[in-house]
Structure to design on (782 residues):
């Protein structure tokens, strides 16, 4: 996977471990390797019967540095980029994979602009050869700006000499980013893996051919056209100790197929067949993918079979294990949750999740937008098996489940219909609750630290319902830079105070007031490699009432966008240090939730003008951004109104319980003028419970406004009656005049009765009250 380092070169595996290459035993004119005399050393006391396993040796091992450990903690920093020879080998590996795919993939249909893309690319190459690097880079970016299809990129790659790609890649920086983006598009242009049993079994017969060229072509076809689906049809042979030749050939083929068979192989380690487990461990060791490190390390320590433990221990070293299965599982779960390239690149997504059940591999279909969380859950369940007492494992599961719930809620809010999937995800509330308050608190702490708004909101709501006392992470959320997290935390802490009959802190009351008073919660994402400029832009937008999250890399920004609730605008600079602008745009537009989200690019060029909503020149007028998101406020108003109503209701209940909520009264009063009834009515209830003479005038204004709904006017009168009784209101005169006018008006009976109750509770002299009573006289007639 991207970011993995220093793998040993193995037979049939390219230097970067990405896919098949022509192995020494498959090169015409050279004799095939013989594995017959190589076997695993016997364990203590000797190994009998099924304890024997044949292992393909690695001819002429290439020295390498020890691989970096998969992880040591639950939320690590991302590993640094490859440098020097290791980086060069990784780039060469990417070229190798594409070359081999081209040998077996049919020519794809072209889009309308392949010639234009090819011409621009060739112009860039010529400029590069002349030493005009800056102009060449503009041409390469122009190719991406054309948004070539995966098929067109694949054709462009096939028509360009490998030395040219390598020349661009080794220049590093933006050149490498652009080249990798084009090449990743080319990888996606090859045929999707297919679970075609007849085709796979036919190719597996060819894998056993005496003809070296037939074997080579079969392995390439398995890799390019079937990938992970081939594994299920090879396991029986891997468990057959009486079929050495076939077993060896299949193990070697799996090694050549590389990383795209790792997940089903890891899932198959759950088999009860020790002989199969040993051969799986050996195969995973020679593939060298760090994603298998956790499972191999666990089997090296805990497997019931001596031979499996020895094979797993040897394999674990080869894939870079640090010897701590728990830490490896935790790190992998965190990496999947964040969609880190170390475990999940664009080409690594699959339509299925693999598991072992009833003696066979089972492929469970899963939508792409939940794929990473399903793998994250698998890793955290592995961590829980490794250490049942692990709080981080339970926290990881809670976070993954809540992230799935949040994703479905966001899709529903965007009008997307996911059928019965929503019902399935709703059931995960049970799993979330079983993780316990400590795990929920830990998960929320991670979400707050990472500005993971959607997941954080879900966790806050669960804690608010389940906890009887404030927690550390709720306190952290209350001071978050994310306004949605602050508001939700204030509501949760307010509800906890009510249930526990304790006084809320001043910070909670202020947070509730802020949430109740915020009219529109606009959310923006800024992604800019220039941190100073990015922070300045984020601050300027925040001053205009936009809740802004800033990231300085494309990968982090995309991960945040996946979890932000209802983003109103995304601002992307054209100078990202890790991804091309094209890749960021493509990822945003491919996600159904953000396909129509306003996208603004910071650039001094209009190269991408046709693919974004607006171009913002560096230092330009922010009006460009405001105009871009002007039409996307309906969802913001709905979110803000819902949170405001919850905050106002909580304040009302706190005030009725006797809690001091004075710090929120101004915000509540300010919300009455133009907010919908869903916000105003609970706000007025809070004012009725805690307000005084200052708030009475605002309540009277709502009561007197015939344009307001009867429900709002009755609520205003009810609140005014409470204030009048508690504060012994006796005026001012205009207040009494207004109440009298409502009583005498043609308003609904409910409104007039409610107004009369307010008059009833006021402390006014007898003469004034007599005059009002005279005016309210009712004569009954038949």
């Amino acid at each position: 996977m991207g970011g993995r380092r220093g793998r040993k070169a193995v037979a049939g595996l390219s230097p970067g471990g990405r896919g098949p290459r022509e192995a020494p035993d498959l090169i015409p004119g050279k004799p095939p390797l013989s594995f017959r005399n190589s076997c695993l050393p016997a364990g203590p006391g000797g190994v009998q019967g099924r304890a024997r396993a044949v292992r393909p040796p690695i001819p002429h091992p290439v020295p390498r540095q020890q691989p970096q450990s998969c992880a040591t903690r639950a939320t690590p920093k991302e590993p640094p980029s490859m440098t020097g020879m290791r980086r060069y080998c990784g780039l060469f590996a990417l070229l190798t994979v594409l070359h081999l795919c081209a040998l077996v993939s049919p020519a794809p249909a072209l889009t309308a602009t392949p010639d234009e893309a090819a011409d621009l690319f060739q112009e860039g190459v010529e400029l590069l050869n002349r030493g005009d690097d800056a102009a060449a880079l503009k041409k390469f970016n122009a190719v991406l700006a054309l948004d070539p299809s995966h098929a067109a990129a694949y054709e462009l790659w096939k028509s360009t000499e490998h030395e040219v790609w390598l020349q661009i890649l080794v220049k590093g920086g933006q050149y490498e980013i652009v080249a990798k983006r084009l090449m990743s598009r080319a990888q996606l242009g090859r045929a999707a893996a297919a679970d075609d049993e007849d085709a796979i079994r036919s190719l597996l017969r060819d894998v056993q051919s005496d003809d070296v060229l037939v074997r080579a072509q079969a392995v390439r076809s398995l890799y390019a056209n079937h990938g992970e689906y081939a594994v299920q049809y090879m396991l029986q042979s891997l468990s057959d100790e009486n079929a050495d030749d076939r077993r060896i050939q299949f193990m070697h083929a799996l090694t050549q197929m590389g990383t795209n068979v790792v997940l089903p192989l890891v899932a198959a380690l759950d088999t009860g067949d020790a002989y199969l487990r040993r051969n799986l461990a050996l195969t995973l060791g020679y593939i060298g993918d760090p994603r298998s490190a956790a499972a191999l390390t666990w089997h090296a320590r805990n497997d019931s079979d001596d031979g499996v433990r020895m094979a797993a221990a040897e394999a674990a070293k080869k894939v870079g294990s640090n010897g701590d299965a728990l830490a490896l599982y935790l790190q992998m779960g965190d990496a999947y949750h964040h969609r880190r390239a170390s475990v999940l690149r664009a080409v690594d997504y699959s339509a299925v999740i693999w598991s072992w059940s009833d003696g066979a591999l089972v492929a469970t279909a899963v939508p792409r937008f939940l794929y990473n969380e399903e793998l994250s859950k698998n890793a955290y369940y592995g961590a829980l098996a490794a250490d049942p007492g692990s709080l981080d494992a339970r926290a990881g599961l809670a976070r993954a489940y809540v992230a799935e719930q949040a994703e479905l809620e966001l899709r529903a809010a965007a009008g997307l219909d996911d059928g019965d999937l929503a019902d399935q995800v709703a059931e995960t509330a049970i799993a979330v609750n079983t993780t316990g308050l400590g795990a929920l608190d830990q998960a929320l702490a991670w979400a707050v630290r990472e500005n993971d708004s959607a997941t954080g909101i879900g966790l806050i709501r669960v804690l608010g319902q389940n906890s009887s006392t404030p927690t550390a992470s709720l306190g952290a959320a209350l001071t978050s830079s994310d306004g949605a997290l602050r508001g939700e935390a204030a509501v949760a802490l307010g509800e906890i105070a009510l249930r526990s009959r304790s006084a809320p802190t001043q910070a909670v009351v202020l947070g509730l007031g802020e949430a109740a008073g915020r009219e529109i919660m606009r959310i923006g994402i800024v992604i800019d490699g220039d941190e100073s400029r990015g922070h300045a832009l984020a601050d300027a937008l925040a001053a205009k009432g936009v809740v802004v999250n800033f990231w300085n890399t494309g990968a982090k920004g995309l991960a945040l966008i996946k979890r932000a609730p209802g983003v109103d605008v995304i601002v992307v600079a054209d100078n990202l240090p890790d991804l091309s602008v094209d890749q960021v745009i493509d990822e945003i537009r491919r996600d159904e939730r953000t396909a129509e989200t306003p996208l603004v690019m910071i650039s001094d060029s209009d190269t991408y003008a046709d693919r974004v909503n607006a171009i913002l020149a560096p230092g330009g007028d922010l009006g460009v951004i405001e105009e871009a998101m002007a039409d996307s406020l309906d969802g913001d108003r709905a979110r803000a109104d819902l949170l405001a109503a919850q905050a106002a209701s909580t304040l009302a209940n706190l005030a009725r319980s006797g809690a001091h909520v004075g710090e929120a009264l101004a915000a509540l009063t300010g919300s009455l003028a133009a907010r919908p009834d869903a916000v105003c009515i609970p706000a007025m209830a809070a004012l009725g419970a805690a307000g005084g003479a200052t708030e009475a005038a605002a309540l009277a204004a709502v009561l007197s406004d015939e344009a307001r709904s009867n429900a709002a006017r009755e609520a205003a009168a009810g609140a005014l009656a409470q204030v009048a009784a508690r504060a012994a209101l006796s005026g001012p005169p205009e207040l009494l005049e207004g109440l009298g006018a409502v009583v005498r008006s043609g308003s609904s009976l409910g409104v007039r009765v409610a107004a009369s109750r307010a008059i009833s509770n006021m402390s006014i002299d007898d003469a004034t009250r007599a005059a009002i009573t005279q005016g309210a006289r009712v004569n009954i007639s038949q």
